[in-house]
Amino acid sequence: MTLKRWISAFLLVTLLILSHCVPKKNNDLVSDDFLFLYLLNSILNARELDCTFSPTSSDSLFNDQWHLYNYGQLGGTTGEDARVRSVWNQGYSGNQVIVSVVDDGIDLTHEDLKDNISISAKGLNLFNNSLFPSHAYSTSFHGSAVGGVIGARGGNGIGVRGAAPCSKLVGVNLLEKSTIYTSDEYRAMVNEMGKVYISNNSWGSPDEYGWLWPSSSLWQQGINEGISSGRGGLGTVYLWAAGNGANGASVSTPLLVDNANYDGQANYYGVMAIGGIGQNGMKASYSEEGANLWVVAHTQGNSATAYTTAITTTDAAGVFGLNAGGTSGDYSFSNYTRRFNGTSSATPLAAGVVALLLSKYPSLTWRDVRELVAYSARQNDIGDTDWATNGAGLQVNHKYGFGAIDAEQLLLRASSWTPITTPQRVETMSAVNYGTAIPDNNVIGVSVMYPVSSSISYIEYVDVEITTGHTYFPELGIVVTSPNGMTQSVLAEPHACANPATNSGCTFGSTTIAAMTGSSTYRFGIARTLGENPNGNWTIRVYDGGVGDTGTIQTVRMKIYGR
């Protein structure tokens, strides 16, 4: 027997002895059973425990989970859901797929989560520098709610089920830190990236400021490492909440504030930005639009005048979390809540659907997954006037991206998918200097041409860097038209703005891109030109929707990702 096997045998015997120690106290954060399985599995480097799930089995609150099966039971539109049931009926429920929940921790002992906590991938608690990402604060619940939407254990006769009820969850407690450093963001993105299939991120820049929030280079490095080296080189799939800051007023009298493109994480090429739609299939008033939006998923929406039914999921157990037991009309039993909402709940629903896909087709790369999600998305809210056909024949919408994620169509499309084998090419074009004045208070504005000549013939994503010293960025509109003349991408619109440093209105005459970001250049992202040929003249139109502030289009530079 080799030395390594002797050591493993010794540790195994030691753990078997330790497994008979006194059971955990009720207030212990981590159960002895979980710790024992985790340590044993780490030593033996075994796979996750297999899980089986029968769609006809019982979960007591499943009827309230309209986002998984909507037959109009709570006033919604029949069939307006994630279309997961047919996939479950095929026998796919996320088995062996590990999903990272980057959030404020996760309740490792929750009755509906504990059996789906990964025992092969290590958690990370950046709040207390441990391996156990439990909630530290009594008010924390968000990560547990997210985890439930993705992978609450199905068919156990209690509570709820996730979209992928056999997927495995690994928590990363990032958000309980009072100060989050860029190094923390990096560690959160790469934690256990060799094992993590999907990284769910229901967080991002602050909402309802109308401010520009560029992403850090270290965070970008983490994403780049994840998509290039994660999952044995297949790439970790990153999903990002598009944001809840679109509406700064009420449902009936909205006030435009945020766009998903103002968030430099949600508009990065390595992530899929996820927006939110309600049980009627229409955009939730708070869900941010953007040319970077990939798809939408279901969450609490609204009618013309009021919010509608939210999402039922797991809550931090006991009196902790969102529901202390009957809180604000919530369930009388406090381990669950029916009040989860926002793109925070839409994103994990999409993550759960992707987990279903990867449980059947685990060899798909991150690029395959992105395009399959786009090509299989369902055109929701068909009457919306923003729907357009891009140059590759895809339906696109600033509110909905490529449409609503659809598990049934996603797996159907994957069944005949030709894997992407061509390496991704990334070509940064030269910056073009214009120095062109932007007419004041003129909605027509000024247009400049940006020529692209590259070896890429199929766009996967586009970055547009715009440099301007305009003295009040929030009154600018920016529209980019691709060379075919068919696809217009709105990068910015005149909008309300508040300074996050003062929580008061932005100052006319001095709210430049540089004042917001530290640089007079900001990078926007475009998803909606997927499949188009980038070569030819792009048109960048910039207009000014207010009086008094002025500036010029100084430079434009584009980066094309594709093949």
TrEMBL record:
Which GO BP terms sit in this record? proteolysis
Q: Signal among the record's keywords?
A: yes
Molecular function as annotated in GO:
peptidase activity
| Record domain P/Homo B: where | 421-563
Q: Where is the active site?
A: 103 (charge relay system), 142 (charge relay system), 344 (charge relay system)
The similarity comment for this entry is: Belongs to the peptidase S8 family. Furin subfamily.
Q: What is this protein called?
A: Serine protease
Q: What is the organism of origin for this protein?
A: Leptospira yanagawae
